[in-house]
Amino acid sequence: xxxxxxxxxxxxxxxxxxxxxxxxxxxxxxxxxxxxxxxxxxxxxxxxxxxxxxxxxxxxxxxxxxxxxxxxxxxxxxxxxxxxxxxxxxxxxxxxxxxxxxxxxxxxxxxxxxxxxxxxxxxxxxxxxxxxxxxxxxxxxxxxxxxxxxxxxxxxxxxxxxxxxxxxxxxxxxxxxxxxxxxxxxxxxxxxxxxxxxxxxxxxxxxxxxxxxxxxxxxxxxxxxxxxxxxxxxxxxxxxxxxxxxxxxxxxxxx
Length: 255
Ligand code: MF3
Ligand code: CO
What we know:
alpha+beta, Creatine Amidinohydrolase, five-stranded antiparallel β-sheet, three-stranded antiparallel β-sheet, 13 strands, globular, binds 2-amino-4-trifluoromethylsulfanyl-butyric acid, binds cobalt (II) ion
């Protein structure tokens, strides 16, 4: 079921979104060579606590997961695309890191992600990150009243394919509100003009993630959470929580 939010509820999600932006900013600032991923998670926990927020990631257990998610951020390095668990790994120069974070504040959730390199990017990483960000921008631009979910999918997918990248439809965007994952699902490729009509008050996370090798194939790591590219190529992810309003799309996780 799709829940349409009132303007007051959209404001509440924006407040959670500011916390998410703060978490991502701190993670990015701390992500230097030698730092362990678990230290980024610890820093994220401090930001959430200081804001009076909790994490919708911590202990989350969707059907596909064998164990509850053990952290408040996802840290996906290089060929890890999504849901990397922050562990003892120490970041190295040139690593491509995607950080995904959520916050629950006063019962409302926001969800966002960024990708960047630790120090100067390796060949291809700068382009992969830029194209992923461009796909997010294009997807957000399509989130207008009167459009359809398929318009967002098509906009995101067109940018990814133009870049030559692999796109899995297994995990994509989603409704956001009282819980992190609500209807509708928003695949990262698809046909314009299809799917649910977009109306003011719809709040969605738009989250392109692309694979540099060009294959659409992924696999689940033995840890039961980390999604990796099947071909071992690198992946990048970008995400914002966005409200569809009469005046167009509004980013709620901008900080
Ligand atoms: N933005 C990610 C998603 O929508 C967040 C996953 S959180 C986790 O899938 F808890 F499942 F890791
Ligand atoms: Co999400």
